[in-house]
Write the structure tokens for this entry.
Amino acid sequence: MSGKNFYQLPELPYGYKDLEPNISEELLTLHHDKHHAGYVNGANAILETLDNARKNNQELDMKSELKALSFNVGGHVLHSLFWENMSPDGGGEPEGKLAEMIDAEFGSLERFRKEFWDACKVEGSGWAVLAYCSKTGRLMIGQVEKHSVNVYPGFRIIMTLDLWEHAFYLDYKNEKGKFIEAFWNVVNWKEVGRRLEEIQGQSP
Ligand code: MN
């Protein structure tokens, strides 16, 4: 494995036990230390492969390398957002600008949750995300297959929910719906709202 750390596994912003009973210590530990770490290591290894091939002027199967790079970088970025948009003090309802924008876009928080729930039926392994389009100023729900398929290019993602089986199976078996409900108990609306306002602050 690569010795170079272009990307680094971030520490969780809380302890491994702190999302219980919604997410168990065992599940969170595996998910962060094994799965997320795997994407970080995978991305770093591909970058090193690219560097070495360029240095030695070697041919590479670029189609395959770049597909794998997108997969691993996507995994790293989405997981990093995911850890931070959960909190032991999460749950409840969004406030301020985020709450206003959810109401303006979806009509109500209830309608947003319903549409987000439907987005959780992502095809195969993937994510449901909430993104912001700075061109229209609108919030957009997205279904990201794997880690990078179906992304809206250039839209900033402000909330992610991991729906790969590795994200819930140990605690919830085949009952993905219970995991989605548990997510609402730990969702860190403050962080989601902070991201939104940060992006809007950068918008022209
Ligand atoms: Mn995951």
Remarks:
- The beta strands are 126-133, 138-145, 156-162.
- The chain has a mean pLDDT of 96.
- The chain has two domains: 25-84, 96-202.
